[in-house]
Amino acid sequence: MSTPTAQVIDEIIVRDCTVTVTRRGGWSWGPDPHGLIQLVVNELPDLLGAEFAGYLTEDGPDVEITEPVTVTVRLGSGQWFGSSGPPAEVVMSPVSAASVEVVAAGDEQPSGSAESFMESFAAVSPADVRSVGALFAELAQRDDLEPLLALLPEESLRVFLRSLARESSAVVSQVAEELARRHGAELADHGGTELASGADVERFLESLPTPVPADHPVAAQPVSVRAARGETEVGSVLPFLLAGPLARIGYLDAIGPALDGLDMAEEAPLFAAALAYKVLGAVARGWRRTPEDNASAAAFAGLDSVPDLTDFARQVRPALPVLDAVLALSLCRGHDPGEPLVIMGVGGRLLLVDALGTFPVAWSSDVAGLLAHWEGCGRPSVLVRGSLPAGCMRDLAAAGVSFVTDVRPLRGDPVSRLPWRSPLWTCGSPDSRLVAAASGHAARVDSVVQALVVERRAVPLAQDASLERSVTLAASVGLGMIAWTLWHARETPDPVLALSRFADLSAVVRYGADAVQVRIPLGRRHSDLLRGGLLADVPDVVWLGGRTLTFSGG
Predict the structure, then answer these.
(1) Which residues constitute the domain of residue 48?
(2) Cα dihedral sign, 404-410-415-421
């Protein structure tokens, strides 16, 4: 086979390529199986140059082949790429005339946008991320937009109002009405009956008495990352197992739009990495991770390696309340009003937990931030424990919450001592079953907080803990759904059960053009996951470029 000139090779641009190496017989791939792919890629320029040299005349127009071209190379006995002599057989699928398009000179892409020949083989087309306007419009059709907006802080409402105005979304007025309501006025009082443009939105925001916080995060340039390619082995498949449960409650569908509202959709893999770290190994000395955990997080995010997430944690803050609200609304609507909630003080904040399944529902800095969730759950009895902010019990009593607590009250707290074998105090008329079950609920919540808040940190060096708290909620809910699906019929499930039983389950991950395939070793755990429906395909994963996440055994 004649070798084409360098000019011929340089003039061919491959925009998408999938390489598959198939062994017929034998028992070994050799000492470097992954290196075989690179050997194939090294030979492809010569093969393609020889096949399509006829299209590359000096004076002819540029052409584009729009149909897939299949190149099949069969090697002779004892022959391999890189050895002397041509392959035994090269078969190239015929190119029909209909698939060849002439590109006019004026329609050529700028030279700076063309990928190099080698880089194009691993290119993954970016996903078409839904806009925040599309997400909010869908929520409005389901009558979920109003309760979601009620859970968002003003900072997030301002950010998303500007984003919605840029895309001329039909829900701009609903977001503006929520902002006006918080200031005790109607939208018309601020001249905002018709917000038809970005200028109208800016005038409306300027009319509100509360300014944008001084520490509002400023968008930075996207972090440069390299996508994962080929095949890799991960020490823990647990991050991948979260995708299915979170997709079923609509959480995965909200990640792309929430980030798109901040023009950060391309950084979705960084969010995925933070989520993965929450279910991998505990950090040492408060920040150090093992190389195995870093590799597993990168594989889940679809990256070669995970960059530092500290700056991302600061920038993404306004988008996180949307994701937290999607989780909270799903949990509140699925809550049985006859089952209690738990409010626990953690690190100066309050964590609301659904006691049945130990599902964390929401974080808040005060009692007022949890009342909407409590009402959404049907106003059940509450177990209060942990290191509480000052005035917490008084605020709960003032809101009409019936609760039981093992926290010794301060002077003025409206509680009374219960005649019980351990010190307990009560306010209102809590469910009598809560008193008997208090110790069990407390132990399970303590174990979740220790494992997923104290020991495992997504961004340990970040000054703003918003991302840390957000992925803690998502990871805990995903783990809790796994535990509930597999074991609720035979034991009391909680997220730590899933964490402990699947943390060391390894897998092999293969990145394809349309799917990311996760192969789990056959055995009892694989069988349990399969029977529980936890190995179903997860389509359109935003941080994987819209590819489908698939599972198999082997």
Answers:
(1) 6-122
(2) positive
Q: Are residues 255 and 337 in the same domain?
A: no
Nearest to 161 by CA among 128, 193, 204, 129: 204
Please check whether residues 535 and 495 belong to one and the same domain.
yes
Q: Is 169 exposed, middle or buried (0-12, 13-18, 19+ CB in 10 A)?
A: buried
- Across 403-502, where does the E strand assignment appear? 403-405, 416-417, 425-427
- Beta bridge partners, 262, equal none
Given 84, 104, 122, the domain boundary residue is 122
Mean pLDDT split into 10-residue runs, the chain, 554 residues: 44 77 61 73 78 66 71 61 52 52 47 40 56 93 94 93 85 88 68 63 78 51 67 96 96 96 94 98 91 96 94 96 97 94 95 96 96 96 92 95 93 90 90 91 96 96 95 98 96 96 96 94 96 95 95 91
Q: Is 273 left (phi over 0), alpha (psi -120 to 50) or beta?
A: alpha
Based on the domain organization, do 334 and 427 belong to the same domain?
A: yes
Q: Is residue 71 part of a domain?
A: yes
- Residue 298 to residue 291: CA distance in whole angstroms: 11
Q: Give the number of other Cβ atoms within 10 Å of residue 411's Cβ.
A: 4
Looking from the CA of 395 toward its CB, the CA atoms found within 13 Å total 15
304 and 365 share one domain = no
Q: Tokens standing for 53?
A: 């040299």
pTM listed for this prediction: 0.76
Q: Return d(Cα 115, Cα 92) in angstroms, integer.
A: 23
